[in-house]
Amino acid sequence: MSLRRIDLKNSGSQLRRCEKCGKALSRRHIGTICTECEQDAIYKDVKEFILHNDVTELEVADHFQLPLETIQRWIKEGHLSYKENK
Ligand SMILES: [Zn+2]
Q1: Could you report the per-residue pLDDT of 3-28, keeping only the tens digit for each?
Q2: Rounded to the nearest whole angstrom, what is the distance from the C-alpha of residue 17 to the centroid of ligand 1?
Q3: Can you give the pTM of this predicted structure?
């Protein structure tokens, strides 16, 4: 394991920023937007999906290839409301 990588170069040329919010992205980050914006974008789709489909958390997670805990967190935080099967 050699995960330790010390970069002493101080050139900011490789610094990438999120296309949406301008937050600095880590070099290892994949994509052009930060995780938060990524989730925000997905979140909107998820919300639409839940509004128009009678689905469970599991189905949502599966459909969007998201961790179930992410969906549950969104619902818990009150961002999403879905039809509960009780
Ligand atoms: Zn961002």
Answers
A1: 665 555 554 456 899 999 999 999 88
A2: 8
A3: 0.57
Amino acid 31 reads G
User: Residue 73 is which amino acid?
Assistant: R
Structural domain span for residue 62: 35-86
Distance 32 CA to ligand 1 centre (A): 9
Cα of 50 to ligand 1 centre, how many Å?
A: 24
Residue 46 Cα to ligand 1 middle (Å): 18
Measured between alpha carbons, how far is 47 from 50 in angstroms, rounded to an integer? 5
Number of structural domains (the chain) is 1
